Amino acid sequence: MLAKIAVLVSGGGTNLQALLDAQGKKLKHGEIKAVISNHENAYALRRAEKYGVPAYTIKNENEIIQIIEENKIDLIILAGFLSILSKDFTKRYTNRILNIHPSLIPSFCGKGYYGLKVHEAALAYGVKITGATVHFVNEIPDGGKIIDQKAVRVHKGDTPEKLQRRVMEKAEWILLPRATEAVCKNILKEKTK
Length: 193
Ligand code: GRF
Prior knowledge:
39% of the residues lie in helices and 22% in strands. By secondary structure, it is an alpha/beta fold. It starts with a strand and ends with a helix. The structure holds 5-O-phosphono-beta-D-ribofuranosylamine. 5-O-phosphono-beta-D-ribofuranosylamine is lined by residues 11-16, 44, 79-80, 100-102, 172.
């Protein structure tokens, strides 16, 4: 048995790609059953289609819930999903929603810290090490329990774009499949208790 995963996306979907590529390899205990976007033009949806994974565009949270329930999803992964979920939603799926954030939480996180803004803030502060964090999602933006983190060095002359790319390559694309595997394994263990 495999844990059933839904990935929520809004943009390019390179983290989704890392998960798709990891299936059957580093990701042994989970399978992506649905990719859900709030933007119909999100390239992430095309990535899903290429892998034969059902891709959905939704207008509101109720539509997400419907897809989750219909597909008996065990784990929801936010991979660049640029919409804040309601308290009702996060409560309904306690310990069943993961997010990847491109900094070492608690630095450069919370409301307003997304995309390049995170890396701009890290460079402006002058930190020498940044990275990525995978955490459970609760009602506080980037405030849920940390599952795993991976550090990345800031280089002299970094621009936000260069740093963003390094954090993705050296941290996010490795960390997300790894943390997903660990959580899926646990979910299956719970199920078979
Ligand atoms: C990533 O940096 C992720 O950490 C953040 O949003 C970005 C999504 O990029 N939450 P992609 O769509 O996976 O390429």
